[in-house]
Amino acid sequence: MTTHHVGQRIREVRKIRQFSVRKVATDVRISTSLLEKIESGDRNPSSGLVARIAKVLAVGPDRLTGQPFTGEAETEDQVQAVIPELRRILLTYDNPDDLLTAPRPLAVLAAEMDHVTQLRQDGQYVSMGPLLPGLLAELTHIAFTARGEEQQRAYWWLARGFRATNSLAHKLGYHDLSLTAVERVHWAADRSGDPLMQVTAAYLRSGAMIRMGAYGSARRLLEGLEQEVERLAPEASMSGAQLAVQGAVLLKLAILEARDGRPEQAEQRLAEARAAAGLLGTDTTHYEMSFGPTNVRIHEVAAMIDTGDTEQALARLREWGAEQDRTEWELPRGIAKERASHHHIDVAAARLAEGDRQGAFADLSVARGISPVHTRYHPTTRHTAAALVRLDRRSDDSIAGFARWTGA
Predict the structure, then answer these.
(1) What is the pTM of this model?
(2) Nearest partner of 67 among 167, 175, 168, 164, judged by Cα
(3) For 191-224, what is the HEC assignment?
(4) CA 354/CA 246 separation, integer angstroms
(5) Is the peptide bond before 68 cis (omega within 30 degrees of 0)?
(6) Closest to 261 in 3D by CA, of 29, 50, 38
(7) pLDDT in tens, 163-216
(8) Contact 48/259 with Cβ under 8 angstroms?
(9) Of 178, 388, 396, 402, which residue is least crowded by CB atoms under 10 Å?
(10) Is the dihedral of CA 153, 156, 162, 168 positive or negative?
(11) Can you list the domains of the chain with their CATH numbers?
């Protein structure tokens, strides 16, 4: 296993910049003792805190997380082999190579893209990756040669293909490729004739901004998107798709506010999202947004964890569990596996922060059972697993084996 963890990388870059611990802690708005614990590996920073530290150190968050993860077990993954081909496809998006055979009918490609979308939501990147280059190439050729409504539909499906590419690149830690894919989603969405697809493209861009710590820019963009969805609704009567897209925007705003240290504003956005979910009444996947009552609760817990209130986050899980006659809240069946595994990864980090190492490992194991590849490539999984190994006084083979599996 590598000896590097996120805290060590923070310390390395801080020393290169010739910054003191006190200066970085002050600029990031945390205590000096917390930063010292992070650098020593005794505490794991949240994703939002990593972004804030990266901004102060003038590096990308990936420099601190160590992404992309291409060492250890990852070298044998088929999913890595598709990255160069996807780079070529994204580079030649408006001047594609000739196809050896004619593209398949749009209806066939649309059905395959639906399959790719399901693989993405389930975190099955190894199966999804090899399908993307050819599918993107065929859709591009149809978009360039078709006319009228068929052309717009081709661009609509192409936008979804670029979104899947963005997700794959982001999850594997190729953030430069992810940003390029987001721009391609914009390009295709603008030609699709679908305003909600255009909102979706901008929503993805806001996510990249948040990951880079550009909170002011992301806030302005998301607030504008919320207003745009309102404008699209005829006579203020929103469709299910419009409610889902607006709700997803509100949840993104809630996470932004939490990471920016504004818990009251985060709660306000969560309340607005809760109202939108109440109107929907069920969990939905319009425009691949996975929005509904369950996702609001997932984000409520995530927001608490991002603000550092891990104790309250775990208390909320117990409170909701009582409603189910369980010790803790359990996700309902049918939630996208990628979303469900992400929730358990977040909760594992919260448990570790509260000193519950056994519970943290249990949640990581649940996440692995739900979506193995998504769990393995998530930086929080690696940080948490590595911390569990460092703190393990019994040399538990199961914990060490899990950490080796992640490449931590």
Answers:
(1) 0.86
(2) 175
(3) CCCCHHHHHHHHHHHHHHHHHCCCHHHHHHHHHH
(4) 34
(5) yes
(6) 29
(7) 999 999 988 888 889 999 999 999 999 999 999 999 999 999 999 999 888 899
(8) yes
(9) 396
(10) negative
(11) 1-66 (1.10.260.40), 67-193 (no CATH), 195-332 (1.25.40), 336-408 (no CATH)
